[in-house]
Amino acid sequence: MKFTRLFVIAIPALLTLACGDTATVNTPPKPSPAPSIAATPAPTPNPIAASKEYFADNCSSCHQESGEGGIVKIEGKRLNVPALTKGHALGHSDEQLAKQISNGGDGMPAFKDKLKPEQIRDMVSFIRKEFQGKDASSASQTQENSVSAAPADTKKKMPMDMPKH
């Protein structure tokens, strides 16, 4: 009987210990994902802003800050600088303006050695937007439409070069 009593007491005690003593496993918490650092996009260069700065430094002394041109005295010479806001500049295509900027002529210096071709295109866009209130593509389209609408014998090529004085 002693053995039975021991057995009756020992079995529940063992079961209690076995079931009640759960081994705690220390599992480290999962690391939270590192906050993703979004790649900061490189600032996109603004070609109009760069052209505006270049114009202010290199072109405004003749064409004026407003693009109105007029009579200026450069290196002892009086020049009648054409306006970029009216007249011939409005009637020329983007390609003609780019050629004038690139090659210069009649008092205007050539900029082909100072500006890359894309910078010259950006300068044309700047002139169209800043002084003529349009973008380069609409200016070219307007110029093409006006040329194609004119009869063949009345089409004249207007010189872009500044008049000599």
Description of the structure:
The chain has 165 residues and is mainly alpha-helical. It has a domain at 47-139: Cytochrome Bc1 Complex, Chain D, domain 2, CATH 1.10.760. Helix content is 48%, strand content 6%. Strands 1-2 form a two-stranded antiparallel sheet. A hairpin with a 2-residue loop joins β1 and β2 (77-81). The longest helix has 19 residues, at 2-20. The protein is rod-shaped, with a radius of gyration of 40 Å. Mean pLDDT is 75; it is low at 138-165.
Which sequence of SSEs, written as H and E, runs from N to C?
A: HHHEEHHHH
Our measurement of the CA-to-CA distance between the termini, rounded to an integer number of angstroms, reads 137 Å
The description of the largest β-sheet is: 2 strands, antiparallel
Q: Please work out how many helical segments DSSP would assign.
A: 7
Looking across the biggest beta sheet, what order are the strands in? 1-2
CATH C-level category of the domain at 47-139: Mainly Alpha
Helix content: 40-55%
CATH-defined topology of the domain at 47-139: Cytochrome Bc1 Complex, Chain D, domain 2
- Poorly predicted regions are 138-165
How would you name the CATH homologous superfamily of the domain at 47-139?
A: Cytochrome c-like domain
The CATH architecture of the domain at 47-139 is: Orthogonal Bundle
